From TrEMBL:
Residues 413-520 form the DNA mismatch repair protein MutS-like N-terminal domain. Residues 1-29 are annotated as: Disordered. InterPro entries: ArdC_N, DNA_mismatch_repair_MutS-lik_N, DNA_mismatch_repair_MutS_N, MPTase-PolyVal. This is DUF1738 domain-containing protein. It holds the Pfam family MPTase-PolyVal. It comes from Xylanibacter brevis. Residues 33-163 form the N-terminal domain. It comes from the Bacteria. Residues 215-335 form the Polyvalent protein metallopeptidase domain. Residues 1-21 have a biased composition (Basic and acidic residues).
Length: 620
């Protein structure tokens, strides 16, 4: 544990501290926070090992459910969720609600003497000019694009301190507000006919097969995830009933859902989802890390839902290795928790979708905006919950996306042929021109090029022929072959790449669907007078409409008091932009998406020429 000097009230009145490059001597607050998190994990592992694995990872004991949030109602993001849950459970607090020194002071409360704060860390960026001098956010924003390109933007880790409300006299001076928070976070005691804990959300997800892969309940089987089949197998719930007392039988039900959550965590890691390194084999370091990610994800999901995850017997052998690694390299916890946060969020998004379908409030509050200052923002009361407009749709697999693109490509070709029935179409593709079907036969006949037959999904194969007729040639040969085509009486049209046009069609269609859905949600809002947000998977989709990956996105309060937005897209750090009031409100209320804001504020910098459906004939 830290001594009082590291997390005293006096220090929290200062600005958040940053982890700078080349620092010598004492550690920054962010570095201290990493050490604290690693030590908390080592201590928990040692305690659990002494209990022979009967204790849960977090050991919330079913007292609370829901994710940690600040006093204004927003959740903490990144690595903070798990450790604030652990801190809440370890101290037996009633609610996982935390506040900064400033928030506590503004609420008229005081921190109890001797109480130690918890660190909260987040990523930020700093700017340095060509001479290595720091450039303020305001100065950077005022620069031209050319000037900004000369400035180096460096990601940094920063932090601030928070206290649980029970570390203050808040419960005494705000008894009604605190009672509402207790009701909100009190875990319900729900059991089935046999006395085992039951989760309606998980049961419905399994019954409807609403998870990202199939979940099989098989009597007599062990629990495992098969990457090759992309399927989860778990034993029947009744097989987990191994105790006799009502209290332990109730916990046996929790163990059933914990096992499912563990295997669900593994299923998030494959390439088509979160893309973790899944190549490890039982007993090696890669496998050990993946098991730790799955264990902590299941623990975080379980504790959020009111139960916990006991360590699996077959993972007990890794405990000493995990502790040794954390002691030698505390930053290992950052790598693990980054994966845990993504996996647990994917699972909780689907859990919330089921809860909303059943008329239950979502477990996930609005996210913290990666900046300590945003804790001071004025938001709705703590009792207001996030409501998603629609249940989360199962994301498309790569195979489904490929099939959709193939179908749309064939449709584009068909439409072009209908618009230009008397034209021979040559499509650009990279350094080549290509032709299909009857056009390919004509090109081959006039030029002497070899007609090929290829299997192309979406194109119809004529009876008696294997594959679709196809011809291609280098674009440098166009001047050689075009006169021959014209000489034989063909009217030739040069068109853009079919797949690019198909992708644009799909993107446009998706955009229309989103707009239509948004319009529908707005109409429903006016009718029911219930504010609805964009679905969580859509809100958090970190990909722009033209397929660029959003590596980092944050909305934050600047020193000027205004809000700004920053993003890193496809590895490129974008400049800080001032966020207008309407977009700021839309972001915090989840009525716009992160991708939409990136597109709006950085669209000109990211845009590529749109591929439109056009053709131009060359009359020779």
């Amino acid at each position: 544990m830290e001594d009082n000097k590291d997390n005293s009230v006096k220090e929290t009145e200062q600005k958040p501290q940053e982890q700078t490059e080349g620092k010598t001597g004492g550690k920054t607050m962010a570095e201290k926070a990493i050490d604290r998190f690693a030590q908390m994990m080592v201590t928990r592992l040692e305690e659990m090992k002494g209990q022979q694995w009967e204790k849960g990872w977090i050991d919330g004991g079913g007292r609370t459910h829901g994710l940690p949030q600040n006093l204004s109602g927003r959740r903490y993001s990144g690595h903070n969720d798990f450790f604030l849950q652990l801190h809440t459970a370890a101290n037996g607090y009633d609610v996982p609600v935390y506040a900064t020194y400033k928030q506590i002071k503004e609420a008229g409360a005081t921190i109890a003497k001797g109480e130690k704060a918890m660190p909260v860390i987040y990523w930020n960026v700093t700017h340095k000019d060509e001479n290595g001098q720091k450039v303020s956010d305001e100065a950077y924003e005022a620069m031209t694009k050319a000037e900004q390109e000369k400035v180096k933007t460096i990601p940094i880790m920063m932090g601030y301190y928070v206290w649980n409300l029970q570390q203050t006299n808040f419960p005494e001076i705000k008894p009604e507000q605190y009672a509402k928070l207790q009701d909100k976070f009190k875990a319900p005691h729900i059991e089935d006919a046999t006395g085992m804990y039951t989760s309606k959300e998980f049961d419905q997800m399994i019954d409807k097969q609403a998870w990202v892969c199939k979940i099989n309940n098989v009597e007599g089987a062990g629990a495992f995830y098969s990457p090759t089949k992309d399927e989860i197998t778990v034993p029947m719930k009744k097989q987990f009933k191994v105790h006799d007392t009502p209290e332990e039988v109730f916990k046996d039900g929790m163990e059933y859902y914990s096992s499912i959550a563990h295997e669900m965590a593994h299923s998030t890691g494959v390439e088509k989802r979160l893309g973790r390194d899944m190549e490890g084999h039982f007993g090696d370091k890669k496998y050990a890390k993946e098991e730790l990610v799955a264990e902590l994800t299941a623990a975080m999901v379980g504790n959020t839902m009111g139960f916990d995850k006991r360590i699996l017997d077959n993972n007990a052998k890794y405990v000493d290795g995990w502790m040794d690694t954390l002691k030698k390299e505390p930053r290992f916890i950052l790598s693990v928790m980054a994966d845990v946060n993504k996996a647990s969020k994917m699972i909780l998004d689907h859990v919330d979708a089921q809860r909303l379908e059943m008329g239950m409030p979502a477990l996930q509050p609005k996210e913290e905006a990666n900046n300590g200052k945003t804790t001071e923002a004025k938001v709705a009361p703590e009792t207001k919950m996030d409501i998603a407009a629609e249940p989360i749709a199962k994301p498309k697999t790569k195979a489904e996306e490929k099939a959709e693109l193939a179908k749309e490509t064939a449709a584009v070709f068909k439409d072009l042929k209908e618009k230009h029935p008397d034209a021979l179409l040559l499509m650009r593709k990279g350094d080549f021109y290509e032709a299909f079907e009857d056009d390919a036969k004509k090109v081959a006949k006039s030029t002497g090029l070899k007609e090929q037959h290829i299997i192309k999904e979406g194109f119809e194969t004529k009876e008696g022929e294997k594959g679709v007729s196809y011809v291609n040639f280098k674009n440098t040969s166009l001047d050689k072959y075009l006169p021959k085509l014209v000489r034989d009486g063909h009217r030739v049209a040069i068109v853009d790449n079919l797949e690019d046009m198909a992708k644009q069609r799909i993107a446009d269609r998706n955009e229309r669907q989103i707009k239509a859905e948004t319009s529908k949600n707005q109409q429903t809002q006016q009718t029911s007078q219930v504010a609805k947000t964009i679905p969580l998977d859509q809100f958090n989709k970190l990909e722009t409409e033209d397929g660029k990956k959003i590596d980092h996105f944050a909305v934050f309060k600047m020193k000027s008091g205004n809000y700004g937005v920053r993003a890193m897209v496809d590895g490129q750090q974008m400049s800080v932009k001032a966020l207008d009031k309407e977009d700021r409100n839309a972001f915090f209320e989840h009525t716009t998406t992160k991708a939409a804001l990136v597109q709006k504020y950085y669209g000109k910098e990211l845009s590529q020429p749109k591929h439109e459906e056009r053709s131009r004939a060359r009359a020779m």
